[in-house]
Write a structure and sequence with these properties.
Elements: H1 2-11, H2 25-28, H3 33-52, H4 56-71, H5 74-89, H6 93-101, H7 107-126, H8 129-132, H9 134-139, H10 142-149, H11 158-162, H12 168-181, H13 190-205, H14 211-234
Length: 235
């Protein structure tokens, strides 16, 4: 329960009680990220449903606002930092990391965040609110996979903290739950593919993982799952 509270406190802006953390609690909390994603999904789905009682576009906007508010734009910040780093690095790894550490947002980050929000708004308008519940949970399986297969790029930070904290049985257990959920929501099978593709891309373009890389990956997988749901529903 302590690690779940730590995970909720880190990934969301939901109020949580203060708990005394042990040295390995922050890293170990990554094993519960998909469960926190389910809480986020419930909040987003509820806001989308409530706004949709008035108008579908209002429902999409309410869902997007809830998504940003409940996560505190944590992963959007990572997406913006990665976009700025890649845009400014020109193949220089040291420059990439320096730009990603810079707290200021550049033009590449602004464009990436803007496009991500626009994409989510349109896709939320096109999907049913019930399907939204599973998406943040499935996307947060990504950090478990990336923590095992992407080397941390910095000696400190989230990427380094969670490296080695994920056991193979953690990945297998959540993957089994995802497979079970895909019986009712077949488009969720796109999740493992999106997670694997992001891992390959991050290794090739960035060389490993940081907290920003994890955040960017979650955002992109969420958008990809929304798109997969829309495509599946249209076929």
């Amino acid at each position: 329960m302590r690690r779940l509270i730590v995970a909720i406190g880190f990934l969301t802006r939901l109020p949580v009680p203060h708990v005394g953390m042990r040295d390995d609690d922050f890293a170990g909390a990554i094993r519960l990220y998909p469960l926190v994603g389910l809480l986020i999904g419930l909040a987003v789905a509820g806001a989308t449903w409530l706004g949709g009682l008035i108008d579908p576009w209002l429902g999409a906007l309410a869902g997007l606002l809830a998504w940003v508010a409940v996560t505190g734009a944590l992963h959007l910040d990572g997406l913006g930092d990665v976009a700025d780093g890649l845009g400014a690095a020109h193949g220089d790894r040291a420059r990439l990391l320096a730009v990603m550490r810079d707290p200021h947002v550049g033009s590449f980050g602004v464009v990436a965040i803007g496009l991500q929000l626009l994409a989510k708004l349109v896709l939320l308008h096109l999907v049913g609110w019930r399907a939204i519940v599973a998406i943040p949970a499935a996307a947060r399986l990504g950090p478990l996979v990336w923590a095992r297969w992407l080397a941390p790029l910095k000696a400190e930070g989230l990427g380094a903290a969670v490296a080695g904290a994920v056991r193979m049985r953690d990945v297998a257990g959540w993957a089994a739950i995802l497979a079970g959920a895909s019986v009712m929501l077949p488009w969720l099978l796109a999740g493992p593919l999106l997670i694997a593709l992001f891992a390959l891309w991050a290794k090739a373009r960035i060389g490993g993982a940081t907290g920003d890389v994890h955040g960017a990956g979650i955002e992109l997988v969420e958008a990809g799952l929304l798109l997969a749901c829309v495509i599946y529903s249209a076929v």
